[in-house]
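Service request form, structural biology core

Requester: graduate student, group of Dr. S.
Request type: structure prediction, single chain
Budget code: on file
Notes: please return the result as structure tokens.

Sequence provided:
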Amino acid sequence: MTGTVEVHLFAAARAAAGCSDWVTEPGTLGEVLERLVAEFPALSDVLPRCSYLVDEVSVKAGDLSAPLVAASRLDVLPPFAGG
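Core staff response, request fulfilled:
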């Protein structure tokens, strides 16, 4: 699809949504996350603990105004244990 943002969910975010990827329209990080929770309500408990990568670049914590343009990739990364 052209003109969309790919959202990739990992670990607890994937478990809460029941899928590993999702596609949505461009917008700010905040707008995309709102749409994500509207589609997968169980994510509302997980997302506050997550970090985010937009096109492989870390987004500053709380920067919900970060733009996600067409063809962007958003990675949703819950805290990982182990290592």
